[in-house]
Specification:
Layout: H1 10-23, H2 27-46, H3 72-77
Amino acid sequence: MIRKQLYIDDDLEHELKALAERTGQSEAEHVRRALRAYLEDRTDRRTGLDPLLGLIGLADDADEPTDVALEHDHYLYGVPKKHTAP
């Protein structure tokens, strides 16, 4: 392992300590996991795994949903649909 030092604000310090106490895992382990998740998310965005790209071409496919414009949050992020079909 390589040692790194960083500065965090008081709120993060308090929350990190509380999390470590609750879980029995070290603060360093939580920081490593958070950093790993952050970097994986950034990598997904750079490699084009953005859910918005999945909408491209849906308008040309007769078998795909017809409410993508109204329900884009549903198709992008899986939130419940807001509108009902006519």
